[in-house]
């Protein structure tokens, strides 16, 4: 089964199978190998590059996010795991099985080296993005002096109700894809490969991206029914990405040059209460029209909000505690984030209420000057706080990309 794509397992004819026999495809070709008849949502995303995929990649529709605690005490085992994970990620993002022999091609008396639930499925735009939590930089692996200053613990914010068991973690992996089974398959295989070296701390499924990361994408809606992330940074914003997304030489340790910092927040929405609020109140809270997404001072979604505009009674059209005002870069010295959040519905809470909300994810160059001041303002003043509760948090240093088959996730950190 080596080199056989998921789609190829069921869709290739005899000639096609012969053409991709064992050893026929070089590892580096995983980047450029085309997938026959792939559409923009089902084809592969290149794995190798100066930055990790899954950050500026046009946001896919599905998420499986997981954090791990490292249970081995051996540095060499951790490095070996990162090498194994990188090789598996390179394969899976191109629609291949996680291991050389795949789900059905190995010794029948041994466990398969792929779990098999993605057999027959295309790559579906799968990206895998890794990050290192602050807890990894303790005294276990000799990394304490390599912790970036920007990986400083996030402060406590007013009103949050954080659950320790779904916060933090030594490692995180973000799997995004346009097919939920492809995303779950990827995380499941990394957990399988890591057995005995890492243990899953928590995971989160997400659907219906809540931000666009490309101008080619329409702005999606969150579970409150509002367009979300209208002013998000986009992959086309080259200068902004340089200034606000990618860690630069001199920002911190050199192993993070070209990387980024990920903040995660699980935000529970009190949707039943929200659904009983009048439309006018909902729009005043967001500062936007619910239908078009336009600011209350404009007519189109991308109109710049006019925070100085007042109504007939002399009060601001966009209220002082409106979300759009408090989250706007002008309120934080121009600070911006690249958001990649997802909706979630995790069943009900046992009291007849949906356990639903937003799994917020935002990448940035330095959380101390970007996420932290923004969240301080929002948590203290945002009218939306009546309807939401932050229940988990995470901060991860996401290293630069894997440049070729001889590289691996975090190599410079351990060099």
Automatic annotation (TrEMBL):
Residues 52-207 form the Dyp-type peroxidase N-terminal domain. It comes from the Bacteria. Its EC number is 1.11.1.-. Keywords: Heme, Iron, Lyase, Metal-binding, Oxidoreductase, Peroxidase, Signal. Coiled coil: none annotated. Residues 219-402 form the Dyp-type peroxidase C-terminal domain. Pfam families: Dyp_perox_C, Dyp_perox_N. It is an enzyme of class 1 (oxidoreductase). It is found in: Cell envelope. Its cofactor is heme b. Binds 1 heme b (iron(II)-protoporphyrin IX) group non-covalently per subunit. It catalyses: heme b + 2 H(+) = protoporphyrin IX + Fe(2+). One of its GO terms (molecular function) is peroxidase activity. Its main location: other. Involved in the recovery of exogenous heme iron. Extracts iron from heme while preserving the protoporphyrin ring intact. Belongs to the DyP-type peroxidase family. This is Deferrochelatase. The lineage of its organism: Bacteria, Bacillati, Actinomycetota, Actinomycetes, Streptosporangiales.
């Amino acid at each position: 089964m080596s080199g056989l794509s998921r789609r190829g397992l069921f869709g290739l004819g005899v000639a096609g199978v012969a053409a991709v026999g064992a050893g026929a495809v070089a590892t580096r070709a995983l980047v450029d190998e085309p997938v026959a008849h792939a559409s923009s949502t089902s084809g592969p995303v290149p794995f190798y590059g100066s930055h990790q995929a899954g950050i500026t990649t046009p946001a896919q529709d599905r998420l499986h996010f997981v954090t791990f605690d490292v249970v081995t005490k051996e540095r060499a085992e951790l490095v070996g795991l990162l090498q194994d994970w990188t090789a598996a990620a390179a394969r899976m993002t191109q629609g291949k099985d996680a291991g050389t022999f795949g789900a059905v091609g190995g010794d029948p008396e041994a466990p398969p080296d792929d779990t098999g639930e993605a057999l027959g499925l295309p790559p579906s735009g799968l990206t895998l993005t890794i990050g290192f939590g602050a807890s990894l930089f303790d005294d276990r692996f000799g990394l304490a002096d390599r912790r970036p200053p920007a990986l400083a613990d996030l402060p406590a914010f007013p009103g949050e109700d954080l659950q320790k068991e779904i916060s933090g973690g030594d490692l995180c992996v973000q799997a995004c894809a346009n097919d939920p089974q492809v995303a779950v398959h990827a995380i499941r295989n990394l957990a399988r490969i890591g057995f005995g070296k890492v243990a899953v701390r928590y995971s989160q499924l997400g659907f219906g991206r809540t931000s666009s990361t490309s101008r080619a994408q329409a702005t999606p809606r969150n579970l409150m029914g509002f367009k979300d992330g209208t002013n998000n940074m986009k992959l086309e914003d080259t200068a902004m990405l340089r200034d606000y997304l990618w860690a630069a030489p001199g920002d911190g340790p050199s192993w993070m040059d070209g990387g980024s910092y990920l903040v995660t927040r699980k935000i529970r929405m009190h949707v039943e209460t929200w659904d009983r609020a009048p439309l006018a109140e909902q729009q005043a809270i967001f500062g936007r029209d619910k239908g078009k997404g336009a600011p209350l001072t404009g007519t189109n979604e991308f109109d710049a909000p006019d925070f100085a505009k007042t109504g007939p009674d002399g009060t601001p059209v966009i209220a002082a505690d409106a979300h759009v005002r408090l989250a706007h870069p002008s309120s934080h010295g121009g600070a911006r984030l690249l958001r990649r959040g997802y909706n979630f519905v995790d069943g009900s809470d046992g009291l007849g209420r949906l356990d639903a909300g937003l799994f917020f994810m935002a990448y940035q160059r330095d959380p101390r000057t970007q996420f932290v001041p923004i969240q301080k303002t929002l948590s203290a003043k945002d009218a939306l706080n009546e309807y939401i509760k932050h229940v988990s948090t995470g901060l991860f240093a996401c290293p630069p990309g894997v440049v070729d088959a001889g590289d691996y996730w975090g190599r410079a950190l351990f060099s």
